[in-house]
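Researcher: Re-running this chain for the archive, since the previous output was lost when a drive failed. Same request as before.
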Amino acid sequence: MPSREGAIARAAAFFDEGRFKALLAELVAIPSTAQEPDFAPELDRYLRQAIQPWVERMGFAATIHPNPLAGFGPILTAERIEDPSLPTVLLYGHGDTVRGLDAQWRAGLTPWALTEEGDRWYGRGTADNKGQHAINLAALEAVLEERGGKLGCNVKLLLEMAEERGSRGLQEFADARKDLLAADVLIASDGPRVEPELPTIATGNRGIFQFDLVLALRQGGVHSGHWGGLTTDPAIRLGHAIAAICDAKGRILVRDWLPQNGVPAEVRAALAGCPVGGGEGAATIDADWGEPGLTPAEKIYGWNSFIVLAMLSGQPENPMNAVAPSARATCHIRYIADTDPHGFEAALRRHLDAAGFADIAIENAGMRMSAARTAPNHPWVLWAQESMQRSLGTRVQVIPNSSGGLPGDVFADQLGLPMVWVPHSYNGCKQHGPDEHLLMAPAREGIRAFAGLWWDLGEPGTPRR
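Model: Regenerated structure tokens:
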């Protein structure tokens, strides 16, 4: 007799017997980096060779679409409709990765081959996002096997290949294909848990607003002995401008960038007692960094942060005895849905002018990803939390948004879907850098949790349409 327990056991066996590892190794071996033009054919190969045949074996009708924007990766959609009256889930993932950074991985590791060491699987995309969407699809396959080829619900899949370039083209695609993507709920996986050991549901994402600060004073450098102390040093000037934006302890001084009424009440309630931990090898959590009076969880999930991504003045690789002609810093704001990014540039201009830095130019300002959020107490969120807790026998933490960027606005704002993000990774996974890896224990929990979710979607009791 098919059962929920049987479905979860099938998914766990797929993982424990090494079949999931073998599957992930095949996915990692495709160098589908979206950030290097020479690898553009690999983006299509990932969908056409690795994903489309797999989902078609599960009964999906799959199509690979060109990106509406030229030069960006393709988009796969697939649907498995058993009965239009049943609940329909939209499952999302991305198969593109950041650059491999081959030369920066430590000895014995390479980005395009899966390497097991201890409790970790190393390889580009293991955490972001190949491993995460593979977990969800493998769990779906286990439930189909347990139920004899039926789910009791409908599933649509959207897998893009330009997420690491800001999901360019996805908004345009969603506008043109709203009927194709229509569903009752988005359930997907990306990003980290709040702690490696604590299963997590995020109901949204922070946005990214990026800009350059530039001070260009002359055509070339001038002799540091003849001109030092006489002519403006742009690096010093830019450093003081940045200090006017954010103090020495990370507190944002451009107060118009922040939620005007503090941490929203529903966000504060969701984060009460929420831990934050990166795991072994992650950065430190510095108690005195950031906005005073907030908990670590409120700082990262309920507030905005300012980051200097890169700074340059002169030639660091070959310093000259010269006062540099210019200085530039690329910065961004990670912001929550309670702030309006359209006012960020104007607020910064007012702030710099008032602080005496009218000479600092703001260039290339704009949104890279928009913030979006579903209420943490939405019926679909609570349903998913209960399902996961039943499958795993442990507490599941709900947070109002992930700390990173995701195309949540496409799902929440354009398609009108409640969002349930179930991350399978952790903050110390080193995504976007060398030595990216997936922890096996959260991955195994993830495949069991999703088997339970897929099973429960075919049972009575899902939230009403």
